[in-house]
Amino acid sequence: MTQSAGEQGPLGVQIDHVPSEPGGSGTPGLWQPNLVSTPAQKKAAAQAIEDHIEPDTSKAGDHADDETGKAVTAFAPKDGDGWVTSTSLKSAHKTWGDQVKNLMNRLASEKAALRSTGLLFQTTDFGIGTGLRQTSPLDGY
Question: Where is the composition biased (Basic and acidic residues) (predicted)?
Fold first, then answer.
């Protein structure tokens, strides 16, 4: 079986086509990135992190911290006898605390990045403009 140039092969492969999305479906409109791009949207996203996500994450971490601490105490040795579960809970408790701390640090850095993006682009634009516009000998005339 032969095919002329430009025809699709048995699997629907087109040589002269670049897919419109990562993953390769090639169907326009199926992949639409949901990125915040306007300064107002970035400001709103940073504010949402500050007003809702950070406080809620901190509260959830504190609640789990309190409850796990109570469980560790309940399973702790009494009169020389205790449960192995207590030691495992202590280890999980420390890991949980570290993960909450890392998440809070990540949220803070994302918030800072959202707030500084506009300034970064403005500074970059001015820097590029200054670098491109050098004085010319013709400027004196």
Answer: 49-69
